[in-house]
Specification:
The structure is a single chain. The protein has 2 domains: 155 residues, MetI-like fold; 51 residues, no CATH class. It is built from 9 helices and no strands. The chain is elongated, with a radius of gyration of 24 Å. The mean pLDDT is 85.
């Protein structure tokens, strides 16, 4: 008797779920909003990730070069010392401003002040999140470069490399291995931060859930679906990061 009631409860629960799912997503082709939001989230995250890495490498190279060569360059003075000092100062201002202001404010400044005539919020989102991520990635990369032994720089010089070639061929590859776990955490955080892209009018994943909830007056299924999709994406990224990290360890042996 108890087993029969349990089966009936499961069947009724399944029937209610299918009915609610059909009403929320299938009727009116509202599932297309979720697909559109998912693709926009991937576009913004991917574009911002690439932009953040480029900015991070550039700023980390400047700041680490300044920290490692400051004393010797100060004694010699010259144009190189002045240029590196100015660039390092600009990088510090950038890091202070970006890390000291909320990402939502940066989004709104980008959309309403910088890209005034732009109607598509996806490129603006890529720009704003890329600039924001670059500040954090830069500090991750700088810490990785500073952790590399100075003997690696000397080895590069002994091979005939200049400073830029030494950074490109010897230091930066080792730096990536050292900071990979922290870098993956930053990418995961970036993926979740893009959920505020709706402030730009972009139909991202979170915005799509809100739109569907507002049109159906049923919020729990759209929002739970959004949360589940984010969870799956984070789990996939974590899995890929783990595989990459294990392969990098094998390459060191």
């Amino acid at each position: 008797m108890i087993f029969r009631r349990f089966i009936q409860w499961v069947v009724s629960l399944y029937t209610e779920f299918v009915s609610e799912f059909t009403f929320v997503f299938i009727e009116g082709n509202r599932y297309q909003q979720m697909i559109k939001g998912f693709l926009n989230t991937l576009k913004i995250t991917g574009g911002a990730l690439v932009m953040g890495v480029i900015i991070g490498v550039f700023i980390a190279a400047i700041r680490s070069s300044y920290d490692k060569n400051f004393e010797s360059m100060r004694l010699r003075k010259g144009v190189g010392y002045c240029v590196l000092t100015i660039l390092n100062g600009l990088c510090k201002i950038y890091l202070t401003v970006i890390r000291g202001t909320p990402v939502v404010v940066q989004l709104m400044i980008s959309y309403f002040l910088i890209f005034v005539d732009t109607k598509d919020g996806v490129p603006v989102g890529i720009f704003a999140f890329g600039i924001n991520s670059g500040a954090y990635v830069a500090e991750i990369f700088r810490a990785g470069i500073m952790s590399i032994d100075n003997g690696q720089f000397e080895a590069g010089r002994s091979l005939g490399f200049n400073y830029i070639q030494t950074m490109r061929h010897i230091i930066i590859p080792q730096m990536f291995k050292a900071v990979l776990p922290t870098l993956c955490n930053e990418f995961i955080a970036l993926l979740k931060e893009t959920s505020v892209a709706g402030y730009l009018g972009v139909v991202d994943l979170t915005k799509a859930g809100n739109i569907i909830g507002g049109s159906t007056f049923s919020y729990y299924m759209p929002l739970l679906s959004v949360a589940l999709i984010y969870l799956v994406m984070v789990m996939v990224l974590s899995r890929l990061a783990g595989i990459l990290e294990r392969r990098l360890r094998k390459s060191e042996r």
